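wait is this the right file?? whatever heres the structure
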């Protein structure tokens, strides 16, 4: 596993969520350099989460600084794999198409863990891009919310 950079502020906030009936397992991954095996292994439950109610959150922007039409095309390629719960497919799609999805490694880890815990479906809750707010579609950042269950 590679050295991982993270925000201590984010971890401190997550840590405050812990209670006697709640445990937080933070899995952090660098932006885009994890090989598939490392990304998948990062969040593999390995029995830690078995038998528990579990919420797994992966955070990532989608494509960065492309026009809205190209961003949507690239993001749809990645989202197709996310919605199919295909962690290996997401990894290879992002790498092959050079999609600038900054948190694809945490997304691969989330899909791997969710499937191991029994997830069988995913749905796109919403897709959008920054141009919807700024009015400038020439250079956008894509965003998606996906529910996996």
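ok assuming it is, sequence goes like this
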């Amino acid at each position: 596993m590679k050295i991982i950079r993270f925000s201590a502020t984010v971890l401190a906030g997550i840590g405050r969520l812990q209670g006697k009936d709640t445990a937080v397992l933070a899995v952090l991954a660098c932006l885009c350099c994890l090989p598939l095996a490392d990304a998948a292994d990062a969040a593999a439950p390995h029995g830690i989460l078995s038998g528990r109610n579990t919420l797994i959150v992966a955070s990532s922007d989608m494509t960065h600084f492309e026009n809205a039409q190209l961003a949507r095309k690239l993001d749809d390629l990645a989202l197709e794999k996310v919605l199919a719960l295909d962690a290996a497919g997401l990894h290879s799609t992002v790498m092959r198409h050079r999609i600038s999805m900054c948190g694809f490694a945490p997304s691969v880890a989330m899909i791997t863990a969710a499937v191991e815990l029994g997830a069988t479906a995913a749905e796109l809750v919403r897709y959008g891009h920054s141009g919807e707010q700024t009015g400038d579609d020439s250079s956008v950042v894509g965003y998606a919310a996906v529910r996996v269950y």
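DSSP finds six helices and three strands in the chain. so i think its the right one actually
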